[in-house]
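WARN no homologs supplied; continuing
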Amino acid sequence: MQNPLYSPYAGTLNTIPFDSIQIEHYKPAIVEAIEMAKAEIEKIKNNKEEASFENTIATYERSGELLGQISSIFFNLNSSKTNDEMQKLAQELSPLLTAYSSEIQLDEILFTRIKAAYNTIDKSALDTESAYLLEKIYKSFVRNGANLNEADKSTLKSINSRLSQLSLTFSENVLKDSNDYELWINDENDLAGLPDGAKEAAKLMAKAKGEENKWLVNLDYPSYLPFMKYAENRALREELFMAFGARGCKDNDFNNEATLKEIAKLRHEKSQLLGYKSHADFVLEERMAKSPDNVYKLWDELLNKAFPLAEKEIAEVQAIADKMNGPNPMQRWDFSYYAEKLKNEKFALNDELLKPYFKLENVISGAFQTAEKLFHLTFKERTDLEKYHEDVKTYEVLNANGDHIAVLYADFFPRASKRNGAWMTSYRGQNKYDNKNQRPITSIVCNFTKPTESKPSLLTFGEVTTLFHEFGHALHGMLANGHYESLSGTSVFWDFVELPSQLMENWCYEPECLALFANHYETGETIPQDLVQKIKDSMNFLSAYQTVRQVSLGQLDMAWHNLSAPLAENTNVYTVEKESGAKTELFPAVEGIATSCAFSHIFSGGYSAGYYSYKWAEVLEADAFEYFKENGIFDSKTAQRFNDNILSKGGSSDPMELYVAFRGQEPSTDALLRKSGLMS
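OK structure emitted
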């Protein structure tokens, strides 16, 4: 049978033939694609003509296209529809891909030609995007060791190979440890306080495992979060909290302590080999922040404002716990429970009051209508396109003229084969090679509350903002309109990539937007204005606490990646966490849990030395949304400026230049402090 991955797109929209792809297809296809990519590189190296932009830089940019396509399919599915066989194959394929990448980046003949092109091309004769590509490709070779001697290149190859395996191991351990834990409840009284929907979901999960008169709670967010917010049984809240916090650090086969320490150690070793003080210095050279000092400066600015206010917020939550004869001092497994009580008391608002207005299908429609108003896009559901799981919805995206813009896969519900959290990803990028505009295939993947036997999927407001967030990333991918794929869509600096996503969350708080989709799932009634006002009033509820929490996670990231010396063999994960969190500690430390051991963002998700990016992007989006509000949240001219200068441009220029072209000025933290209620 022919391997479908040799031609991974099919049908009228050139989408992925998921039904034809079997696990045994991946390895031969990837091995073959690696050989094809190497042959493409050999042609560049053997070209007798003088190195030019077209015969060297542009040709290099296009090398390995098939390999990139197949790898995207495999690793995307390894995150959203995995199994033991796939994870084992990932451990086998990852070193092959890393070895190929290292071999190319460290090829002396290839680099000599790239360098010759870089030094001789008249950069003033290139368009902005081509000049940026030239700079990026040359720097990527230097940053990946092209100037090293042979011995150091060999060491670097070994480090890269080992890191790729460790990253997969870390991710697999978190997933397996999460799936390994189940909280079985036999007595319905232990569910006191839980909303009916959460109880029904727990009963359905138990039923799916063959248990008729029991309830099951697990560590997936739609199960975990409601229990922590509403369950009156404090002992069970503690048990669940400890299970969640101990993922990756229990005494079992899925312990990540040694794995994460080796990752941190090797990243530091690699950065030193390449001539940088630390992994953070290496990473931040190609970020808007530029240096660790600027990241710490951001943290200090935010902490100075937020920490005293966060202490007051904690005291408010403690006061309501005291009023209810709760624990004093509160522990971390008490905070969500009493915070929800305080929110209800202050704003008469809670998730259960709002959820009837946020039926999943309506929220999807709301996101689509927002994009239609802003960017004149139409989303047409296509039931004829193959998909990788029955839960996935498929859409064709069209512009105002009815032209095809993109394909969007949307995958909303948790399952054992999918990692936790929410993310946007790409199955095919956008480019303008061969006088064609190849349109992208994007995907948003979430873990939302599933429908039950009596209710459709009703989202919490947090899930609503998550959907808009990931949809913002998807718009960045779908509206891409660059020439070179490596500079297109979300291929931007990591502290810039969160701007479109975090900006989109703002529309969820605006009455004009909520009126589009927030209708009661039973009566069809539009969400009442008093509830909309309460949503706006509660927007900054515990915002100082959340800011301190984000800073704390960012500082933990830097503790592992801004090392002044190699990581000591006897480094203790718990000690690192305690020391990095000293300035941000709002609760007593809890023995037996370690955030680092399940911190997938930084140890397997690409955010190493970059977790600050969320706050950095919040500064940008707060400033950008102030601009939208000045002109009207659906103002077409403002949206057009955002599309022309940010979304369609991808990473084709320096991000601050793109931002200033849109906004007319550089941002400051003041906009974020105003938005968060941390500054009048």
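Strands lie at 183-185, 215-217, 378-381, 393-398, 404-411, 423-428, 441-445.
OK
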